[in-house]
């Protein structure tokens, strides 16, 4: 019985990591499809969303069953609640990847506006945050989780830079307003992906250290 | 013991509704501050965010304690898990209201670009979705919850209209690019508020009917 339960927790973690790798891959490929003007790849990202959605429901079912059948210790309870929240964040990262892929599909219909100077840097930073938040989860590494949280400001800074660059470009040349606007939407999507990675990092700390670091709750305690 | 537990569930619900009313008020006032060019009101919305954040942590603590101390029946378990998810959505609605208030603070520094034709309609629709999702929660009204879910498309449609309008305006007159862009960001924020209301409505159905209606899971079953 005890062993069965340990195994269920381990399986839950493995499924969540699998979900994480799907979300991570979707983000990477959506950005690749945009930068490489690859409509076929963008289409694949859109089509693979349903696998992520299905996985989310499966993981939530496992969470519910674990909570219903087991009287969990505080540590395991925090783990299961963290999984439930991280699951939601991963699904929303998948949604953002689909939005980027859909922007890519619209952007390829316009002449290429300019080399996307800061967008690739921004996407690299956001992708690395997602990867590291999942690594922090696997290794219960609160230091890595903290470094993810700190990097959120950097991504916001890059986003402002991308906005300024594209708006200036739009002012100079009104014919690029529509394609440039798509890139602004992509920057917003990447910002949200970084936000979700930050949420995951906060949940890792909550899970490992039993402390709530959202809203700098730590500072208040 | 039994009675104590029923009371704790009731308190949890009351705190969540209080949190909901704070989030709802923040959205309403942030939009008012934008439409009325009221910097003082916008500033208030920014300052009152911490109350919402603190409430989120309090509610999550209550959820954890309930799960730790009680072996819950399936219905109560679904309720507690739904509260935990709705709590996160309400906090993010509060975040979006703060973003709108911050846009309002920047917009007042520019000459008014034009009457905001579709933005008030969009904000009314989004606010009504938040209100109705909470009413659905109070009254366990799955019909109302479903109507909230259906209205999400309408808000997306209004958002596209606002985008088109503002982009056309930017193309015609490059001097309005920056203030018009702020209004685009506000439309994005309202879109997200409507998304969160939709999430809440889905959780209400999950809670009441025990069915997962995310990603049209219902259709697949």
Which two chains share the most extensive interface? A-B, 35 and 35 residues
Helix content of chain A: over 70%
Q: Any idea of the CATH class of chain A? A: Mainly Alpha
Q: Using the CA coordinates, give the radius of gyration of chain A.
A: 19 Å
List the helices and strands and how they pair.
The structure is a homodimer of 221-residue chains.
Chain A: H1 2-35, H2 39-47, H3 49-69, H4 74-107, H5 118-139, H6 142-172, H7 177-209, H8 217-220
Keyphrases for this structure?
homodimer, Methane Monooxygenase Hydroxylase, Chain G, domain 1, mainly alpha
Brief summary of the model shown:
2 copies of one chain form a homodimer. With 221 residues, the first copy, chain A, is mostly helical. The first copy, chain A, is 85% helix and 0% strand.
Summarize the structure in words.
Two copies of one chain form a homodimer. The mean pLDDT of chain A is 90. By secondary structure, the first copy, chain A, is an all-alpha fold. Chain A is 85% helix and 0% strand. The first copy, chain A, has one domain: Methane Monooxygenase Hydroxylase, Chain G, domain 1 (Up-down Bundle), CATH 1.20.58. The longest helix of chain A is centred in the first third of the chain and has 34 residues, at 2-35. The first copy, chain A, is elongated, with a radius of gyration of 19 Å. Chain A contains eight helices and no strands. Chain A has helices at 2-35, 39-47, 49-69, 74-107, 118-139, 142-172, 177-209, 217-220. The interface between A and B is medium-sized, with 35 and 35 residues.
């Amino acid at each position: 019985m005890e062993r069965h339960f340990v195994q269920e927790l381990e399986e839950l973690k493995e499924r969540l990591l699998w979900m994480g790798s799907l979300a991570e891959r979707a983000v990477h490929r959506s950005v690749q499809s945009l930068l490489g003007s690859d409509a076929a790849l963008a289409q694949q990202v859109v089509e693979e969303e349903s696998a992520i959605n299905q996985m989310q429901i499966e993981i939530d079912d496992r969470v519910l069953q674990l909570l219903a059948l087991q009287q969990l210790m505080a540590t395991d309870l925090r783990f299961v609640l963290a999984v439930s929240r991280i699951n939601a964040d991963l699904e929303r990262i998948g949604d953002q990847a689909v939005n980027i892929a859909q922007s890519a599909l619209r952007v390829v219909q316009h002449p290429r506006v300019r080399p996307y100077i800061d967008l690739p840097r921004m996407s690299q930073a956001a992708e690395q945050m997602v990867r590291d938040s999942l690594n922090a989860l696997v290794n219960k590494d609160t230091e890595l989780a903290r470094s993810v949280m700190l990097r959120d400001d950097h991504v916001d800074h890059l986003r402002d830079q991308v906005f300024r660059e594209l708006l200036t470009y739009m002012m100079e040349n009104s014919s690029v307003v529509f394609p440039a606007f798509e890139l602004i939407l992509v920057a917003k999507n990447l910002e949200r992906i970084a936000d979700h990675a930050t949420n995951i990092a906060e949940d890792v700390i909550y899970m490992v250290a039993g402390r709530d670091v959202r809203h700098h709750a730590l500072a208040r305690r």
